[in-house]
RNA sequence: GGCGCUGUAGCCAAGCGGUAAGGCAGAGGUCUGCAAAACCUCCACCACCGGUUCAAAUCCGGUCAGCGCCUCCA
């Protein structure tokens, strides 16, 4: 469906981290949504936890599109390393990886940028409208830092620039922290060139030997950890843009710092903040530092990426998702149930007749409404998925008898629009080569005919042997009232 | 220590004042040469203890258990 500016959109309620409650979404500009999502630091392979975040916000974006909004979706690529810790002797992650792999830092960035894109592409995550790179926006970052200095919210010290946390009382509003409650100086010595241990770096002076370095008013250096997101989101989405998203673990300090940097410089920032919860394995957060992660490229060797996506949308984005062998076996079977119902609808549509399908069409509409209602309530994908299973139950029941073209088409469009376009669960083009699949069709038709002859002659040993042999290579034969059929 | 979250059937997971969605697994049945698929039926005293209420998984207080952030992390 498509809306023009004069059309109305259904109310959407989203949980706003700033207000700590569900609020009605109001677009800044009618019919348009601007979203910013904190993207990856491209220094190693993406794991399932990254997939949870990417899929969560991809679904949100897709739902806005489904309602007819024009969405500008900006997600950055961090290709300059943040430091590993807040002391000056910490090593840059990009540089550490570069040394390990004996590559230039930019080679590391390129390598992992493309593997990230590939991993997400297979998960059917749409490409961002704009995917700005931190190293391509050093100028914007420097300009923002200069504004902060001019307004008295940042200061230079020994070639580095720090944000003066004490000058900005709102610091802590997002994460609900009071400055004085924070542990001070326990994990690090208060550095000599900082006024307060909690001040964070906007610009860092480059030590000799630091490869990634740029000229700045404060000498050669590199940007701090948080400034790129403030600078790039404002550049591409403008002041007071709609939605800023990211992982819950980024809420503090990263997002807190982003807000401070933008608003202290006089630029109203994001109006809604959305955070996805973490993915756990054995009850513990999957993370690189814990080492308990499964990379997507490894996972894809044993699991269809669509099943991974299904597993992720089966839990709410604000809930913790437990990732275990049991969970994905369950996801595998559940996904199969949905996708095979869809396949059967398509198959039956090829030679469908007209008929009275009003009963089925009414049921499809009921499930469609349930799906929409769930999505409009803070993108409740588990309930939306439940609606898809409800649809599947009714469709399968109808499929057991006579269904006309209109009924099949109603079911098909529900699967395509809700399961496909919104949840992204039915990626196109998964079958290889048209030619091969044509040949396979013909070949199996012959096999099925031969087997049918055995069955007619009650030579069940022979017919069962054929079925077993095909099963061994992953082809399933099912006998139905209308004859045998096969599926992968 | 500060801030915050979670505990729902064997597993995954919604619901967040009106008497427990959905999926996987399991049991029985229909169909079938058998099987598979599909359909029908069954399968939860919502961690524990108090309190508020006509009514609580849902609100309040406490207890226990687990987790996250406060350091790079999606």
What does this structure look like?
The protein has helices at residues 48-66, 93-101, 105-122, 138-150, 227-237, 251-264, 296-299, 305-313, 325-349, 358-376, 381-399, 405-422, 434-456, 460-472, and strands at 13-16, 21-24, 32-37, 70-75, 154-157, 160-163, 201-205, 221-223, 243-247, 272-276, 279-281, 284-285, 321-322, 476-480, 483-487. With 488 residues, it is an alpha/beta fold. 44% of the residues lie in helices and 13% in strands. It folds into three domains: 13-276, 3-Layer(aba) Sandwich (Rossmann fold); 296-422, Anticodon-binding domain of a subclass of class I aminoacyl-tRNA synthetases (Four Helix Bundle (Hemerythrin (Met), subunit A)), CATH 1.20.120.640; 435-487, no CATH class. A four-stranded parallel sheet has the order 4-3-9-10, with helices on both faces. A four-stranded antiparallel sheet has the order 5-6-7-8, covered by helices on one side. Strands 12-11-13 form a three-stranded mixed sheet, with helices on one face. It starts with 12 loop residues before the first strand and ends with a strand. Residues 84-89 and 183-190 have low confidence and may be disordered. The protein binds one RNA strand of 74 nucleotides through helix 1, helix 6, strand 12, strand 13 and helix 9.
